[in-house]
Write a structure and sequence with these properties.
Shape: globular
Number of strands: 29
Number of helices: 12
Structural class: alpha+beta
């Protein structure tokens, strides 16, 4: 598994408040949710090291058949291992040390009984054989699985997408985000001979088979999360370039359907621009060893590690639309920028539990405004991130329920971005803020993390206790309101619509003079020069304000 950094717990107020909010939601979970979302005892005793996924994909009948070799280190003695594979796929055989093992199935979880002694500290392997027709993606990438399509010439056009649902929808693995292969992965995919297959990492070789098919062998050298593993199959053509980045030359390879090559050569020129902006803000691209690829697929796109998928119709914006309503959203290709941003926040820094999915989506949604700021100036980025507030619903907390594979509100995108934008205003030092973002990717390099770790890091680096700040924006649905009134030559102010002990400094303009107020849940006051001054709250803070002067 990735090293899971030691984290500090925050105050009991934060924990109790968060637990109360989560328990308040009357949501029913099943044992299958627990088996999928928790670190069961059948998972906890072994540490994942390496996969070799070796499969044959048959577009003609939408089947997959093959095996996954799983290398692991024994942490403590146990004789039962949990491996996950979702119906209607089925495991057909499990081998260790040349011997066939017995197993039982409970829904999507297989419990394999090992026969050889599992001695702590030893490294072992099992080979899991399987086959079947994987779930067809209904609305990829949100409701994922395998997408079986054809291009305009009738060639198969196939791709996987499975975040949330889980990679076990199409291949057997240890399907929990806390543990990743430390030693990388081999992906071998056999496809019809007229097609090209693209997966993660670097292409090691293409093997021509006697039956006319081809097997593409890909090698991944870095840790990789399960949902980041992908297959993409089509009548692809490719072109490549080298990006001169912070760690040297980064190999960039682009795969497009044959009839879209000219469009791709034009639209994908944004990739080096993206890399330049994000290396500035976040630090070096995290996977130089595995290269960067952008691959056309028959759905919108996804952040598959070193194999980012693209289906934005070669348009700027989000399928040609500006999600911010400001005009700035049409200055870049949303899928190239957003999904590639996940290489830093999702693939480099990865949530341990999907309840903390905001770590992926809030930072990456915020990265869109940073891309704009890098090329068009600060006000462009600021205008964009304020503009996407119109998409915030405040329907439920951003953090989901833990240990049951449950993500929180989709507000993790737009509200999460504005939470980070607000925090930047608190820091009020652009270079310090940039160093904080770069430091995140260095401190948690190739790690799975928790919300508490990220909160602690940001509190430490900003020099502020941010526990109530994160309680407000991650664990509550209220928008904090700055309530104020003027009386004689006094300005009275406080926070309402907020969590207990909410602590957020706020920038205001009083008669065109900038001031920083430190409101609390109790009334505070300051003396001012005039009775009825002009008063304005900086709109870069995601709050509301209310003048109650009578």
């Amino acid at each position: 598994m990735k090293k899971i950094a030691t984290f500090l717990l925050f105050t009991s107020v934060m924990i109790n408040h968060a637990q109360g909010l989560l328990n308040a939601a009357e949501t029913t979970f099943t044992r299958q949710d627990t088996l999928r979302g928790s670190i069961t005892k059948e998972r906890a005793w072994w540490d994942l090291k390496y996969y070799h996924l070796d499969i044959k994909v048959n577009p003609s009948d939408s089947t997959i058949i093959g095996s996954n070799t799983i290398r692991y280190q024994v942490l403590q003695e146990n004789m039962v291992m949990q491996i996950d594979l979702q119906k209607p796929m089925a495991i057909t055989k499990v081998i260790q040390d040349g011997k066939q093992l017995s197993y039982k199935r409970e829904g999507n979880a297989y419990f394999i009984t090992l026969s050889a002694p599992q001695i702590a500290g030893k490294t072992k392997e099992i080979v899991v054989f399987y086959n079947g027709k994987p779930k067809v993606a209904v609305n990829p990438p949100w409701d994922g699985g395998i997408t079986w399509k054809k291009d305009k010439y009738g060639n198969p056009f196939v791709a996987s997408s499975c975040q949330g649902l889980g990679a076990s929808v199409w291949w057997p693995n240890k399907d929990h985000m806390y543990d990743e292969v430390e030693e990388g992965m081999m992906i071998s995919v056999n496809v019809p001979g007229n097609l090209t297959e693209v997966s993660n990492g670097r292409l090691l070789r293409i093997q021509k088979q006697k039956d006319g098919t081809k097997t593409f062998h890909w090698i991944v050298k870095n840790p990789i999360n399960n949902y980041g593993v992908n297959i993409n199959i089509g009548d692809y053509v490719s072109f490549s370039e080298k990006y001169k980045g912070e760690k040297g030359n980064l190999d960039c390879t682009y795969y497009a359907l044959r009839n879209n090559l000219d469009k791709a050569k034009k639209q994908f020129q944004e990739v080096p621009k993206m890399l330049k902006a994000f290396e500035y803000w976040f630090g070096p691209y995290p996977f130089y060893e595995d290269s960067y690829k952008l691959v056309e697929v028959p759905y919108l796109g996804m952040e598959h590690q070193s194999s980012v998928t693209y289906g934005n119709q070669y348009k700027n914006g989000y399928l040609g639309r500006d999600l911010s309503g400001t005009g700035w959203g049409l200055k870049f290709d949303f899928i190239i920028v957003h999904e590639s941003g996940h290489e830093w926040f999702a693939n480099n820094i990865t949530y341990k539990d999907i309840a903390d999915m905001w770590i992926h989506e809030s930072f990456t949604n915020y990265s869109e405004s940073l891309f704009l700021e890098y090329y068009f100036g600060k006000e462009a980025g600021y205008t964009y991130v304020r503009g996407i507030r119109k998409n915030i619903e405040n329907d439920k907390p951003i953090i989901g329920h833990y240990d049951v594979n449950n993500e929180g509100s989709s507000d993790m995108y737009y509200k999460g971005a504005n939470m980070l934008h607000t925090l930047r205003q608190v820091v009020s030092d652009d270079e310090k803020w940039r160093n904080i973002l770069r430091g995140l990717n260095a401190t948690f390099y190739h790690q799975t993390v928790t919300t508490q770790q990220i909160e602690h890091y940001l509190s430490e680096k900003t020099g502020r206790d941010l526990s109530s700040f994160f309680n407000q924006y991650l664990r509550d649905t209220q928008i904090p309101t700055l309530e104020y009134f003027f009386k004689n030559k006094q300005l009275e102010y406080r926070w309402t619509n907020s969590v207990p002990h909410f602590n957020l400094p706020i920038k205001v303009y009083l008669n065109n003079t900038t001031m920083i107020l430190e409101p609390s849940n109790e009334w505070k006051s300051i003396t001012i020069d005039t009775i009825n001054p002009e008063f304005e709250v900086d709109t870069n803070f995601y709050i509301t304000s209310k003048n109650t002067t009578k």
